[in-house]
Design brief:
about 350 residues; mainly alpha; Rossmann fold; Tyrosyl-Transfer RNA Synthetase; two-stranded parallel sheet; 13 helices; binds tryptophanyl-5'AMP
Length: about 350
């Protein structure tokens, strides 16, 4: 049996090249080596208010982006989190074994909570739901960008705590980061990671942006006070531009030095923009084709949800048995240890 991979993206709109380089491109690379599940995490998105009509549209847009990136729906299950009740169910069971202090320490909770007038409980519980996403499928590998590393550590802590309280139940998931592109920074401010929600029209390159906009945003990117690329002294803005080029092009460090040492920033930016456009143009053509086929995305999501649900029943049943909760599910596992293959 192949080990499982699980990862997810919030359908909060404006997916950008950070999401692509940190997560999606890595998913595509490894999807055939594992039993892969890729989830559109709408329950996570509603931890901050989303306009319902926009959220519905963004869920389908995100599914289109998964497919246009090269996720193969025959090999990988693509589904929406709220179509699989096991996520919310397991999240509650895990909440009951998670100390409050672990959640209050989460960096993303502190940052997001600081931006809200009223801090919803869902924001605090966010990483428990994420742990449930992963543990529900006994996923061994979780390919993500670097900003999710702390949530993955928490997932292992929760799994370990559950296992020590109730007996061996969960597979311990490992974090899989890409070697380049694990943290793409904001183009206008290379001190912060590129993010969907950051304000400012010069912050991110969206996956569906036009070539003109891509050239414009990259031409405005923050660099440093050097006149040209110096690998010894370059600032974070230049490093970020080079990282984007390298991640898209698959160049080695030596090739990057040979191509860019001493290059003036105007030329560097032109080359980075053309590299991004070369990759995004065929991606966008695929996206347009996929999303113009009536009912196609919905059928992919239905098939993915069926596959995900079928796996989820086994874990929910196992966890219920472990905790002493009542279960008479027809999917019950006679020997719980077998579910952790
Ligand atoms: P989200 O929706 O913020 O981002 C989706 C994926 O993109 C990566 N990413 C980045 N990588 C490199 N540079 C960046 N600037 C950048 N910004 C985002 C993220 O690391 C992520 O891999 N909590 C998650 C969603 C989630 C999830 C899960 C992930 C929910 N359940 C279970 C893995 C497994 C999130 O908000 O990702």
């Amino acid at each position: 049996m192949k080990a499982r991979v699980l990862s997810g993206v919030q359908p909060s709109g404006n997916l950008h090249i950070g999401n692509y380089l940190g997560a999606l491109s890595n998913w595509v690379r490894i999807q055939h080596d594992y039993e892969s599940l890729f989830c559109i995490v709408d329950l996570h998105a509603v931890t901050v208010y989303q306009k319902p009509d926009e959220l519905r549209a963004q869920i389908l847009e995100t599914a289109g982006i998964f497919l246009a990136s090269g996720i193969d729906p025959k090999a990988s299950a693509i589904f929406v989190q709220s179509s699989v009740p096991g996520h919310a169910e397991l999240a509650w069971m895990l909440t009951c074994v998670t100390p409050l202090g672990w959640l209050e320490r989460m960096t993303q909770f502190k940052t997001k909570a600081a931006a809200q007038q009223t801090i919803g409980d869902g924001l605090l519980q966010y990483p428990v739901l994420m742990s449930a996403d992963i543990l529900l499928y006994q996923a061994a590998i979780v390919p993500v960008g670097d900003d999710q590393s702390q949530h993955l550590e928490l997932t292992r802590d929760i799994a370990q705590r559950f296992n020590s309280l109730y007996g061996e139940t969960f597979v311990m998931p490992s974090t899989n980061l890409p070697s380049v592109g694990a943290r793409v920074m904001g183009l206008d401010d290379p001190a912060v990671k590129m993010s969907k929600s950051a304000p400012g029209s010069s912050h991110a390159v969206g996956l569906l942006d036009s070539p003109d906009r891509i050239r414009k945003v990259i031409s405005r990117a923050t660099t440093d006070s050097n006149p040209a690329v110096d690998f010894e002294t370059m600032g974070p803005g230049v490093k970020n531009l080079l990282g984007i080029f390298q991640a898209f092009g698959g160049h080695t460090a030596d090739q990057m030095h040979a191509q860019f040492s001493g290059m003036r920033y105007g030329d560097l930016k032109k080359q980075v923009a053309e590299m991004v456009i070369t990759h995004l143009e065929p991606f966008q053509a695929r996206y347009r084709r996929i999303t113009s086929e009536p009912g196609y995305l919905e059928s992919v999501l239905k098939d993915g949800a069926d596959r995900a649900n079928a796996i989820s029943y086994g874990t929910i049943d196992l966890v219920k048995r472990r905790m002493g909760l009542y279960t008479e599910s027809p999917n019950c596992i006679q020997d719980p240890a077998k579910a952790v293959a």
